[in-house]
Amino acid sequence: MKMPREPNKQQELALLKLEKAMDKKLTAYYKQALADIQASIGAYEAKGILTQADMYKYGRLLQLEKSIDESMARLTGQTTNTIKAGLKSTAITAYHSTGFIIELQAQANLSFGKISDDVIKRAIANPFDRIGWLKRNAANNSQAAGQLKDALVQGLIQGRSYKDISKTVAQRLEISENRAKVIARTENHRVMNAARSEAMSHAENLGVKIQKRWVAALDDRTRSAHGELDGQQVDRDDLFEVHGFRADAPGQFGVPELDINCRCSMISVVVGYEPEFRRVRGEGIVPYKTYEEWAKARDL
User: Domain boundary at 208, 243, 269, which?
Assistant: First the structure.
């Protein structure tokens, strides 16, 4: 069996494509929510209802606030469904692509059949998150709804134009969108590595000696702790460790400052087939070097 060039890189690109697709959908949903809310606000301007006193008549303000709540509730449902589907796709892709790489390294057919629902559930479950991304996502949009209504009321009290109020609404909603994307990316990253671990477990159960290696992004945005972890290789059942914190995989420390927005990955290594090269941005494929070696050469 011929080993294709950079199978781990191909896997990363496939998973990145899924993440970008999820990001794109989230952007579209927030854009639509903004358009709906701005249209609701603009409808009153079109009717010549321009003052705070006008808005307090006939329950107009309450009607507008209800419209904002409905738009944000719809947005929560859309983003929740998108993240759920995205995490499942990531788990499936990471599991099978990791299995493919292990089979290439081991030169054996390890019967990586269709991923089971139980494996998907285990990969998606986050035992370290007491709140859970579902509640966090809902809370994010609920908070945004409150902020949008506050911005509306304050704008009316201050006599601001509907155009100015709509601009503030857009700014508040953009903050909520960015938070939603952080939630989605953080969970997606964690699920990716959890699914890889599941694939490694399957191979080990069939007698293949598997280890896992931490791979950090080689750039100046990488956290120092993650730079120290780069290249650390342990048995599949063992934990990566840095500064007294331990994790089964990137994104699984259960410590926000180590998990949120983590860009590190984890690769499977069949013992005896350790990687000798890695790709470095701007340099291409080079002899394997750790983050600390790379950073030292650049006085970072």
Answer: 208
The reply to whether 163 and 214 lie within a common domain is: no
pLDDT tens for 154-186 read 999 999 998 999 999 999 999 999 999 999 999
Task: State how far the alpha carbon of 90 is from the alpha carbons of 38, 154, 185, 232, in Å.
Answer: 34, 43, 11, 24
Give me the domain span that covers residue 224: 209-300
Q: How many domains does the chain have?
A: 2
Q: In 3D, which of 158, 245, 250, 263 has the Cα closest to residue 213?
A: 250
- Whether 123 and 189 map to the same domain: the answer is yes
- The answer to whether residues 194 and 254 touch, using CB atoms and an 8 Å cutoff, is no
Cβ-Cβ contacts under 8 Å for 263 (sequence gap 6 or more): 189, 216, 217, 221, 222
Per-residue pLDDT tens for 24-39?
A: 999 999 999 999 999 9
Would the pTM count as exceeding 0.85?
A: yes
Answer yes or no: do 136 and 237 share one domain.
no
Segment holding 277, helix H or strand E: strand 277-280
Q: Supply φ then ψ for residue 247, to 5 degrees.
A: -150, 150
274 and 232 belong to one structural domain: yes
